[in-house]
Design goal:
Structural class: alpha+beta
Number of helices: 3
Radius of gyration: 17 Å
Shape: elongated
Strand order of the largest sheet: 1-2-3-4-5
Helix content: 25-40%
Distance between the termini: 62 Å
Length: about 120
C-alpha cells in the first residue's frame, strides 16, 4: 500500500476488513475519571496499528470495558493529548482480563500502602 493511502485511510486493507467504521468518539478523562485506552495487542506489521481496549476509568483504574478498537497513533503530545485513528473490532477478552488483573493489583497495592502509612 502506498504511503498516500495510509494518510488517507490510516489502516491497511486487512485491518479495515477486520474492523468497522465505528469510532470511540471523544475519549478523555478528568482527574482520572472518564474514558481511556489501555493495552496493546495484535500489532499489524503493515500499517503499525494495534488493538486497544477503551475503558471507563475511576482514578485511572479500569472499571468497565467499553469495547476493543484497532488503534493507530498519528501524533503524540503526551503533555496535552494524543491524536489517533480508531476502528471498532471484536472484543479482545484476553486483553480485558489482563488489564482488570493489573488494575486490580495496583489498586490493592495503593490501598495497602495508604493503610500502612496511616497506621504509623
Amino acid at each position: 500500500m502506498a504511503e498516500e493511502d495510509f494518510v488517507a485511510v490510516g489502516f491497511c486493507s486487512n485491518c479495515r476488513g477486520e474492523s468497522t467504521d465505528e469510532t470511540p468518539g471523544n475519549v478523555s478523562t478528568t482527574n482520572g475519571i472518564g474514558r481511556k485506552f489501555y493495552g496493546s495487542a495484535d500489532p499489524c506489521a503493515v500499517c503499525g496499528s494495534v488493538v486497544r481496549t477503551l475503558w471507563w476509568t475511576f482514578i485511572d483504574v479500569p472499571i468497565v470495558p467499553r469495547g476493543s478498537y484497532r488503534y493507530k497513533t498519528i501524533s503524540d503530545d503526551e503533555i496535552r493529548m494524543s491524536r489517533f485513528w480508531a476502528r471498532r473490532t471484536r472484543t479482545h477478552w484476553d486483553q480485558i482480563i489482563k488489564t482488570w488483573v493489573v488494575g486490580f493489583a495496583i489498586a490493592v497495592a495503593v490501598v495497602v500502602a495508604i493503610v500502612i502509612y496511616k497506621g504509623r
